[in-house]
Amino acid sequence: MQMQKLNQVIQMFAVDGSVLSAEEYGTGHINRTHLIEMDQCGQRKRYILQQINTEVFKDVDKLMENIIGVTGYLSKKLTEQGGDPDRETLRVIPTRNAGSYYRDGEKCYRMYPFIEDAVSYDAVKRPEDFYESAKAFGRFQSLLLAYPAHTLHETIPDFHNTKKRFAAFCAAVEADLCGRAASVQPEIAFVMEREPEMSVLTDLLKQKKLPLRVTHNDTKLNNVLLDRQTGAGLCVIDLDTVMPGLSVHDFGDAVRFGANTAAEDEQDIGKVSLDLSLYETYVSGYLDGCRGSLTKKELEMLPMGAKLMTMECGMRFLTDYLSGDTYFRIHRKQHNLDRCRTQFALTADMEHKWTQMQEIVQKQAKKDMR
Questions:
Q1: Nearest Cα to Cα of residue 221 among 208, 209, 237
Q2: Which among 78, 182, 327, 340 counts the fewest CB atoms within 10 Å?
């Protein structure tokens, strides 16, 4: 974006001063993000300016209503508990006409203060960082325990409805638009063999055996800011997919992403496995952050959350491969197939280590209750 255009957009927000610099920032694939530095009466202050991806998030009013509601609630809870809401949650800067975002034609923008002295990582480099990210997501869950989850909008409907994802997969197999189904019969069979598990979590929700929670739905390591000085989990970011959902989905997706011994698109599936040490690290951090707020059934279903989120992700990659690679960006032929095979290999390893996964949760849950 040209500097002149950036200046025009920034002037629509309730910030004073002149722009000193602007640069693209972060590794996100959805929204376009700039780090803005401004001179405010001789003091330099930095902000995050994001252009919201309206192809993915079509109802920006509902999206921002979710974010305003959740961040406002978090700020209040953190203040009550003696925390620092300026560093421990995002704060939306209003526009000059008191809006939550600025619309310029079809483009929509929002602005946050930049949280200084914080860092995020795209991959697990130290177990301590994985623990702190888990604790931050668990604390996010705990702080929002009393928030009325049913009042939140679904920014992406049925995002983690594994049963519907399975139905979409079956339709893609049946249509076979690119004539690829014959070459991936083992992968198709892998999914079909696990059909009975696809509705386990959604059925428990319908039966009210699992509670509806405020969930983040994109619990990757890089969506937590860590304090640069102490390494402690500081702030959960990227709140676009905050919706009503299941805590076990949030837990499971983080394990899928962070406790895999290989990259998400590793072509040598022999390198793929569940790192039980990292899994235990995440369980420990998540339960520490949740502070006893999870129910007995939620604790019991944590391993299933990890397995189903991994299965769902692999199924989505395979669905896209069968449909002609129209959703996920690819960088080589069969990229989505490689991604799918990695997720299925991780799923199979989880099944192999199932008893250990359950025992780790039980051990950490007992420790959490002491």
A1: 237
A2: 182
